[in-house]
């Protein structure tokens, strides 16, 4: 989405009392967003949020209010990052949301400056919440990034209110779409992250991705579906084709209006079970 779109969206959220915006926070200076990423509002390292590219290329019209009205079956939830600042969790609860994912880390150096109050605030309101990591496979190993994630809020506990962490695998906002890796190299990187995360927490993380990116950069390996639940990114009225190996999705990010909208593919009781087991 454009910087203008983000600004207007933030203003709309503030007007209805959903969010109190703050800055995106400090981040490492060694990475420069591509022109496409800058057009989508990513002006510095650390600012990439879930679906930064798909916001523009998959949803027509952009930020359609109709897409929000047509909530798919399941348990509604949202995901947030430093773009949202201080979230009015009470308002989100009143709007029917019951789970939230919060950006914690990116690469092996960035930690979100808003993670603490977003993560704690959602928990205090009663949300089942989890953390997500924006992967940069060309900056360090999957093992290193899994450690960074767990060390900075991405862990899991069987308390019934903490979701397993999510690994955000998507278009590179700082360079080549597949981060300069072959499909074989990308599969190795992802497996290293998954295995390290499981060793640290006892759970495999959820994988967030768009089918188009996954098929291009990871390929047809079906083994990931046996490890990680799928969080599908697709802004449309139906989930469409899933990435290779997954026959269904666990989470679906289906809209960005007025904040990223998601559903859990099941009941609230099953979501609580998923958080616990």
Fold and architecture overview:
This protein is of the alpha/beta class. The chain has a single domain (3-276), classed as Alpha-Beta Barrel (TIM Barrel). Helices cover 32% and strands 17% of the residues. It has ten helices and eleven strands. It has helices at 3-15, 35-39, 54-57, 65-69, 89-94, 115-125, 142-151, 183-201, 211-217, 268-276; strands at residues 19-20, 75-80, 86-87, 99-106, 110-111, 128-134, 166-168, 206-209, 230-233, 251-255, 260-264. The strands form two sheets. Strands 2-4-6-7-8-9-10-11 form an eight-stranded mixed β-barrel, surrounded by four helices. Strands 1-3 form a two-stranded antiparallel sheet. β10 and β11 form a beta hairpin. α7 (142-151) packs parallel to α8 (183-201). The longest helix has 19 residues, at 183-201. The termini are far apart.
Summarize this, please?
With 277 residues, this protein is of the alpha/beta class.
Give a quick set of tags describing it.
277 residues; alpha/beta; TIM Barrel; two-stranded antiparallel sheet
